[in-house]
Design a protein that fits this description.
7 helices, 209 residues, alpha/beta, single chain, six-stranded mixed beta sheet
Length: 209
Protein backbone atom coordinates (compact mmCIF):
# COMPACT_ATOMS: atom_id res chain seq x y z
CA UNK A 1 0.00 0.00 0.00
CA UNK A 2 1.10 3.57 -0.69
CA UNK A 3 0.66 6.77 1.33
CA UNK A 4 1.48 10.33 0.38
CA UNK A 5 4.37 12.06 2.13
CA UNK A 6 3.42 15.45 3.58
CA UNK A 7 5.58 18.51 4.14
CA UNK A 8 5.84 20.25 7.52
CA UNK A 9 3.42 22.81 6.10
CA UNK A 10 0.82 20.09 5.57
CA UNK A 11 1.15 20.17 1.77
CA UNK A 12 1.74 17.10 -0.39
CA UNK A 13 5.36 16.62 -1.44
CA UNK A 14 4.27 14.73 -4.54
CA UNK A 15 6.14 11.67 -3.33
CA UNK A 16 4.71 8.44 -1.91
CA UNK A 17 6.04 5.75 0.36
CA UNK A 18 5.26 2.06 -0.07
CA UNK A 19 4.37 0.40 3.23
CA UNK A 20 4.94 -3.29 3.92
CA UNK A 21 1.70 -5.27 3.79
CA UNK A 22 3.06 -7.70 6.39
CA UNK A 23 3.44 -4.90 8.95
CA UNK A 24 0.75 -2.32 8.19
CA UNK A 25 -2.03 -4.47 6.69
CA UNK A 26 -2.09 -7.73 8.61
CA UNK A 27 -5.10 -9.11 10.49
CA UNK A 28 -4.80 -7.64 14.04
CA UNK A 29 -4.28 -10.10 16.89
CA UNK A 30 -6.25 -8.69 19.83
CA UNK A 31 -4.93 -11.21 22.35
CA UNK A 32 -1.31 -10.36 21.51
CA UNK A 33 -2.17 -6.68 21.98
CA UNK A 34 -3.79 -7.45 25.34
CA UNK A 35 -0.73 -9.33 26.60
CA UNK A 36 1.73 -6.67 25.44
CA UNK A 37 -0.25 -3.80 26.97
CA UNK A 38 -0.70 -5.79 30.18
CA UNK A 39 3.06 -6.34 30.39
CA UNK A 40 3.80 -2.66 29.71
CA UNK A 41 1.49 -1.51 32.51
CA UNK A 42 2.67 -4.24 34.90
CA UNK A 43 6.33 -3.37 34.35
CA UNK A 44 5.60 0.26 35.26
CA UNK A 45 4.19 -0.66 38.68
CA UNK A 46 6.53 0.06 41.58
CA UNK A 47 5.15 -2.71 43.76
CA UNK A 48 6.25 -0.92 46.96
CA UNK A 49 2.83 -1.14 48.68
CA UNK A 50 2.88 -2.49 52.23
CA UNK A 51 0.54 -2.73 55.20
CA UNK A 52 1.36 -3.93 58.70
CA UNK A 53 0.20 -7.32 59.83
CA UNK A 54 -0.37 -8.30 63.44
CA UNK A 55 3.26 -9.26 64.01
CA UNK A 56 4.38 -5.77 62.98
CA UNK A 57 1.91 -3.70 65.01
CA UNK A 58 3.19 -1.89 68.11
CA UNK A 59 1.17 -2.95 71.14
CA UNK A 60 0.96 -5.23 74.12
CA UNK A 61 0.83 -8.96 73.63
CA UNK A 62 -0.90 -9.41 76.98
CA UNK A 63 -4.10 -11.44 76.86
CA UNK A 64 -6.79 -8.77 77.10
CA UNK A 65 -9.44 -10.85 78.88
CA UNK A 66 -9.87 -14.28 80.28
CA UNK A 67 -10.46 -17.17 77.90
CA UNK A 68 -13.88 -18.24 79.20
CA UNK A 69 -16.85 -16.84 81.03
CA UNK A 70 -17.17 -13.46 79.32
CA UNK A 71 -19.97 -14.42 76.96
CA UNK A 72 -17.96 -13.19 73.99
CA UNK A 73 -15.42 -14.60 71.62
CA UNK A 74 -11.97 -15.36 72.98
CA UNK A 75 -9.26 -12.82 72.24
CA UNK A 76 -5.54 -13.25 72.71
CA UNK A 77 -4.02 -9.88 71.73
CA UNK A 78 -4.98 -6.26 71.13
CA UNK A 79 -3.08 -6.56 67.84
CA UNK A 80 -5.67 -8.97 66.45
CA UNK A 81 -7.09 -7.88 63.07
CA UNK A 82 -10.64 -7.80 64.47
CA UNK A 83 -9.79 -4.88 66.80
CA UNK A 84 -9.45 -1.23 65.82
CA UNK A 85 -5.76 -0.48 65.32
CA UNK A 86 -4.91 -4.13 64.86
CA UNK A 87 -2.91 -5.65 62.03
CA UNK A 88 -4.36 -6.16 58.57
CA UNK A 89 -5.24 -9.63 57.32
CA UNK A 90 -3.59 -10.64 54.03
CA UNK A 91 -2.48 -7.07 53.36
CA UNK A 92 -0.37 -6.04 50.35
CA UNK A 93 3.32 -6.84 50.41
CA UNK A 94 6.16 -5.52 48.21
CA UNK A 95 6.34 -7.56 45.02
CA UNK A 96 7.55 -7.43 41.43
CA UNK A 97 4.67 -7.30 38.95
CA UNK A 98 6.81 -7.57 35.82
CA UNK A 99 6.70 -10.62 33.58
CA UNK A 100 8.31 -11.66 30.32
CA UNK A 101 6.80 -12.09 26.89
CA UNK A 102 8.10 -13.81 23.79
CA UNK A 103 9.81 -11.36 21.41
CA UNK A 104 7.81 -12.60 18.42
CA UNK A 105 4.53 -12.07 20.29
CA UNK A 106 5.51 -8.47 21.03
CA UNK A 107 6.25 -7.96 17.35
CA UNK A 108 2.83 -9.33 16.42
CA UNK A 109 1.25 -6.93 18.91
CA UNK A 110 3.05 -3.89 17.43
CA UNK A 111 2.19 -4.95 13.89
CA UNK A 112 -1.45 -5.33 14.96
CA UNK A 113 -1.45 -1.85 16.53
CA UNK A 114 0.02 -0.35 13.35
CA UNK A 115 -2.57 -2.18 11.24
CA UNK A 116 -5.35 -0.73 13.40
CA UNK A 117 -3.93 2.76 12.86
CA UNK A 118 -4.01 2.27 9.09
CA UNK A 119 -7.58 0.91 9.20
CA UNK A 120 -8.72 3.91 11.26
CA UNK A 121 -6.94 6.40 8.95
CA UNK A 122 -4.80 7.42 11.90
CA UNK A 123 -1.43 7.15 10.12
CA UNK A 124 0.32 10.21 8.66
CA UNK A 125 3.64 10.08 6.80
CA UNK A 126 5.64 13.29 7.10
CA UNK A 127 9.00 14.36 5.72
CA UNK A 128 11.87 14.25 8.23
CA UNK A 129 11.39 16.99 10.81
CA UNK A 130 14.25 19.44 11.37
CA UNK A 131 14.16 21.97 14.21
CA UNK A 132 17.08 24.39 14.48
CA UNK A 133 16.25 25.11 18.12
CA UNK A 134 13.68 23.97 20.70
CA UNK A 135 10.52 25.92 19.93
CA UNK A 136 7.17 24.76 21.23
CA UNK A 137 5.34 27.27 19.00
CA UNK A 138 6.90 25.72 15.92
CA UNK A 139 5.83 22.26 17.04
CA UNK A 140 2.26 23.46 17.66
CA UNK A 141 2.30 25.03 14.19
CA UNK A 142 3.42 21.70 12.73
CA UNK A 143 0.48 19.87 14.35
CA UNK A 144 -1.91 22.57 13.15
CA UNK A 145 -0.60 22.25 9.58
CA UNK A 146 -1.17 18.48 9.74
CA UNK A 147 -4.70 19.02 11.20
CA UNK A 148 -3.70 17.20 14.39
CA UNK A 149 -3.76 20.03 16.94
CA UNK A 150 -6.86 18.71 18.70
CA UNK A 151 -5.78 15.05 18.68
CA UNK A 152 -3.50 12.92 20.82
CA UNK A 153 -0.45 12.31 18.63
CA UNK A 154 2.62 10.11 18.62
CA UNK A 155 5.48 11.34 16.43
CA UNK A 156 8.05 8.69 15.47
CA UNK A 157 11.51 9.73 14.28
CA UNK A 158 14.38 7.64 12.92
CA UNK A 159 17.14 9.04 15.14
CA UNK A 160 17.35 11.11 18.27
CA UNK A 161 16.17 14.66 17.64
CA UNK A 162 16.79 16.70 20.77
CA UNK A 163 15.28 19.97 19.53
CA UNK A 164 12.11 18.22 18.38
CA UNK A 165 11.84 16.34 21.67
CA UNK A 166 12.31 19.50 23.75
CA UNK A 167 9.75 21.35 21.62
CA UNK A 168 7.09 18.75 22.38
CA UNK A 169 7.99 17.99 25.99
CA UNK A 170 5.67 20.55 27.60
CA UNK A 171 2.62 19.57 25.56
CA UNK A 172 0.22 17.10 27.16
CA UNK A 173 -1.38 15.43 24.13
CA UNK A 174 1.71 14.61 22.11
CA UNK A 175 4.83 12.45 22.42
CA UNK A 176 8.02 12.06 20.38
CA UNK A 177 9.62 8.62 20.22
CA UNK A 178 12.43 6.98 18.28
CA UNK A 179 11.67 3.82 16.31
CA UNK A 180 13.39 1.56 18.86
CA UNK A 181 11.30 3.08 21.69
CA UNK A 182 7.92 2.23 20.18
CA UNK A 183 5.55 0.15 22.25
CA UNK A 184 2.04 -1.16 21.69
CA UNK A 185 0.47 0.85 24.53
CA UNK A 186 1.54 4.25 23.18
CA UNK A 187 0.63 3.27 19.62
CA UNK A 188 -2.93 2.49 20.68
CA UNK A 189 -3.18 5.40 23.11
CA UNK A 190 -2.53 7.96 20.35
CA UNK A 191 -5.36 9.08 18.07
CA UNK A 192 -2.91 9.72 15.25
CA UNK A 193 0.52 8.30 14.46
CA UNK A 194 2.96 10.56 12.59
CA UNK A 195 5.77 8.57 10.97
CA UNK A 196 8.72 10.54 9.69
CA UNK A 197 9.89 9.45 6.24
CA UNK A 198 13.22 8.15 7.52
CA UNK A 199 11.57 6.16 10.28
CA UNK A 200 9.48 3.99 7.93
CA UNK A 201 12.34 1.83 6.65
CA UNK A 202 13.86 1.51 10.15
CA UNK A 203 10.52 0.45 11.57
CA UNK A 204 10.00 -2.17 8.87
CA UNK A 205 13.53 -3.51 9.42
CA UNK A 206 12.96 -3.68 13.18
CA UNK A 207 9.66 -5.56 12.90
CA UNK A 208 10.90 -7.93 10.21
CA UNK A 209 13.61 -9.52 12.34
Amino acid sequence: MELAILKQTGEDTGRKVTLSEDIFSQEPNDHAIYLDVKQYLANKRQGTHKSKERAEITGSTKKIKKQKGTGGARAGSIKSPIFRGGGRVFGPRPRDYSFKLNKKLKQVARKSALSYKVKENGLVICEDLVFDAPRTKEYIKLLTNLSLSDKKTLVVVADINKNLYLSARNLQKTKVRMVNELNTYELLDADSLVLCEGAVSKLETLLSK
